[in-house]
Amino acid sequence: MSMGQAPVDPTSTAAWPRLAALAGELEPDLRRWFVEDPSRAERLTHEVGDLRVDLSKNLVDDAVLGALVDLARAVGLEERRDAMLRGERINVTEDRAVLHTALRQPRGASLHVDGQDVVADVHEVLDRVYAFAEQVRSGEWTGVTGKQIETVVNIGIGGSDLGPVMAYEALQPFADGPACRFLSNIDPTDAALTLRGLDPETTLFVVSSKTFGTLETLTNARLCRTWLLDGLPESVRSEAVARHFVAVSTALDKVADFGIDPENAFGFWDWVGGRYSLDSAIGTSLVLAIGPAAFSELLAGMHAVDEHFRTTPLESNVPALMGLINVWYVDLLGARTHAVLPYAQLLHRFPAYLQQLTMESNGKSVRWDGSPVTAGTGEVFWGEPGTNGQHAFYQLLHQGTQVVPCDFIAFAAPSYPLVDGEQDVHELLLANFLAQSQALAFGKSAEEVRAEGTAEQIVPARVFAGNRPSTSIMAPRLTPSVLGQLVALYEHITFTQGVVWGIDSFDQWGVELGKQLATRLGPVLAGDADALADQDPSTRALVAYYREHRS
Ligand code: F6P
User: Fold this and answer.
1) Which residues cross the membrane (predicted)?
2) Whether the complex's predicted ipTM surpasses the cut of 0.90
């Protein structure tokens, strides 16, 4: 398939009307399905790397899964996957290859794109990042006054923030280097609070920006540079930026313009999308925190899932199946959102990370050839760790009027084993993990509610309809490798959905207009009367309010 060709319209495939018919006749009854098919749990549980993925509590049967796989074949999922892995320019609107999978190819592998071995390039940069991290972690690299680096501040936003901060939090048990803080927001409060209590002499800044043109990141980098210089003795200021600032970017010329020594800059390539860049040099702060060995394990975990995605037939290809089931929910069963519910406090930023991955990738209304999409796309991903979410929004999951597919994630071994008297507290967590998917799937009938002696008038309020879909993902424990596997799993789920919908999952034009307008509104806020007059009445009134109340 040529990547410039029109995508296959999923609704024009033979599988689509079959799916529509199956959706129309669907009478979900997970209780009965499990009784009638005692092997359902086993048959619908798959393994990918260390991940055990139980799909059995989804509203699918063999006919639905068969039709979804046929749909995937008809839209050319396998061909497009292979084209991506080969380095074809499947990011059509930006005319770029999409090669985040090359970032985790093992040393010695090779992949030639435009005559260049990109895997060799990847390892050359990784080696530089690792060598730098070892210097900082060992104390050989010091601040300008000779003190060891104690805190790393990653300055970046979007993909240059969410991946590193998510992984830093997730891998706290493996963090044995300097502490990291993450500065992203243009709100000056973020800079003020991130820098609060830090010592300029022992702080290292990693300015992470693919383009090195992002307003938030460059503004925050300048604020930090000023803070650093103001906090150091005058005698060392001229050398300070070189010792306290490093950069990660594809635009190394702009890094130099900012005043950062190119020796202290780590590059990557335009074929790495921001939201797919955790495993590039964008992970430098993470490498500083957990060390090169643990980061290599993260990469190996990602590669294992890439290999599964590349080689496993669609019938048991876990990311493909999960992506296809998501399409089933969005387009055939009317789901608009998807909850990701880690029963692991360490994954507390995982849903936020996934929001960029999934929604910046698949929140699109046109296909890669510019024609309108033919089916609903891009469900809203959201979530919070269990059990906190249970005491907040699970009410809607259990008894609301919407279909909300849920992904539950848990680990057999605790990262921090603690007991409360005789009680293993991790078992309390896992009991809740199991209970929630059970309650969603199997519910509680009116008869069961009545049998508990409930007054008749409140029986309806206490009934749980059940048949609310979920996937349960488990792994032995949360290690760097397992985190890498989870990230790659969701990357390929996202890709699968994008291919079915025919969209370019690797551009993000939808973020541009707001950036342009913000640039124009800067002078308006600063008092430019002519620019204010050009604004709409709502904006003019909001600016007037600002003027009146800014003290
Ligand atoms: O505005 C969206 C975006 O372009 C994301 O795709 C990207 O991850 C983020 O901004 C940050 O971009 P950069 O790494 O170039 O600063």
Assistant:
1) none
2) yes
